[in-house]
Design a protein that fits this description.
The protein has 334 residues and is of the alpha/beta class. It has helices at residues 2-18, 49-62, 79-91, 112-119, 178-194, 211-220, 241-248, 324-333, and strands at residues 23-24, 30-36, 66-70, 97-100, 140-145, 152-158, 202-205, 251-256, 265-268, 271-275, 292-299, 305-311, 316-322. This is Metallophosphatase.
């Protein structure tokens, strides 16, 4: 009887998720994404209460079409109960959500695969374990369909950026593997072919920034919008993901976390490289002030998006539009 009840619960969860696998633009041709990052949640620890407050406040005010958690959500045992505290805030509002891992999520006696197995049974969860031949757990794609037609209009890429360096003598943090880059190239090419040779407008989400964030800072520091209060803590090896994205021509922006004292956005060779905003409480270092999130809005049929940082309490900072904001800044500089 117990096994039968468990079977029914799993069937129910799968059926609920199946109803929400398809994302689409609303009737106004907009699609809004909220990025929460580095929540570093500790269950029953008072310092984490502000994270729950932020999530509830933002979801009610912004009414997003998708919520993306870009890693380091959980920071202590009990892991599953802590994740439930976070994700249930989204689930009870019936909002689809996605999740990629940071370098800390699996440090509490629960592996990445176990975490993914746990969350993918949750209602409204769109995260996927992805191809097992690739590095990491959670390399997957979500399509955004049109408001009035069942056709792909935008593509969202999600990557597991790993945790710590696989080569002891080479830095501290991991980097995207060659097989992840090749997988992206193949998927992107297939989507472009499907769209008569025109790349779909796309975004990418992962935890650890690319090396190009540092390169952009070095070359365009005076053009960054937002706070840069710590150096970019990426892996030391550059395996070519940025070059692949630039060659493919679909990705307009990448969105990461990891570095708690950065929430900036900049432009590098026509791709916007952005941080989210530290979303947690005082369970880890954070010196930007109020916690917050990043809001991103796509427009159907257009190669554009708008984004800003939203703080606890409702203040909105650093509004940016792709591709206009940095194109205008470049014109002024010339």
């Amino acid at each position: 009887m117990r096994n039968f009840i468990l079977f029914l619960l799993i069937l129910f969860s799968i059926s609920v998720n199946a109803q929400h696998k398809s994302l689409s633009f609303n009737n106004n041709g907009k699609f809004k994404i909220i990025q929460f990052t580095d929540i570093h949640y500790k269950k029953n620890v008072p310092e984490s209460a502000v994270a729950l407050k932020l999530i509830s406040e933002v979801l009610d005010a912004e009414k997003p079409d998708l919520v993306v958690f870009t890693g380091d959500v959980i920071y202590a045992k009990p892991v599953k109960e802590g994740l439930d505290d976070i994700f249930n805030l989204v689930i009870k509002r019936k909002i689809p959500w996605a999740y990629v891992f940071g370098n800390h999520d699996d440090e509490h006696e629960t592996s990445r695969q176990e975490l993914m197995d746990f969350v993918t049974l949750k209602p409204y969860c769109l995260a996927q374990a992805g191809d097992k031949s690739l590095n990491g757990v959670g390399n997957y794609i979500l399509e955004v369909k049109g408001a009035s037609e069942d056709k792909v209009k935008s593509v969202l890429y999600f990557f597991d950026s790993g945790a710590y360096t696989p080569i002891k003598e080479v830095g501290t943090y991991d980097w995207l593997a060659f097989n992840q880059v090749e997988w992206y190239r193949a998927q992107s090419a297939a989507y472009t072919k499907q769209n008569a040779g025109v790349p779909y407008p796309a975004l990418a989400f992962f935890h650890i920034p690319l090396v190009e964030y540092s390169m952009m800072k070095a070359e365009k520091y005076d053009q960054l919008i937002g706070s840069r209060d710590e150096k970019e803590c990426h892996g030391k090896m550059n395996t070519g993901m940025f070059a692949a994205m630039r060659e493919a021509g679909d990705v307009m922006g990448t969105f990461v976390g990891h570095d708690h004292d950065n929430d900036y956005i900049g432009e590098y060779y026509n791709i916007y490289l952005a941080y989210g905003r530290y979303s947690g409480g005082n369970t880890e270092y954070n010196n930007l002030g109020k916690n917050g999130c990043r809001v991103i809005e796509l427009e159907e049929g257009k190669r554009t998006f708008s984004t800003y940082i939203r703080l606890l309490g409702g203040d909105k900072l650093y509004p940016v539009t792709y591709p206009d904001t940095f194109a205008k800044k470049a014109e002024v500089k010339q």
